[in-house]
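To fix ideas, we reproduce below a protein record of this kind.
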Amino acid sequence: MLERILELLKQKGMSPSQFADEIGIQRSGMSHLISGRNKPSLEFIMKVLARFPETDPVWLIQGIESRVSSQPVKTNGTTQFQSDLFDPPELAEIPIPSFQEKKKKKTEAEKTIEKVVIFYSDRTFREYGPEVI
């Protein structure tokens, strides 16, 4: 991934310190990445993709060109991905339920209490559950 980060720096015509300032990380963090001391974190990748949305995330992470656009599109409450010219339509129309839809599916009857914890002022505690732990 380091080679692709360096290639991105070259494409943007930036020095490592300019790139660090641009994506909002410390310059020393960028120096550690380039020297090989640290590996890019998910937070780093997210910042790069947020600042440079034209960068293909599959290319950045895996080093391969992606055919499918990774830009999500919201329609009728579901998230779908834009299709590429050569993608079969059924792949582009797979609905992805949102977090709220998943959360609503669990009813009150399905919820059970797993344990109760009581904290005392002397910094001790007691746990109660199906069996006393």
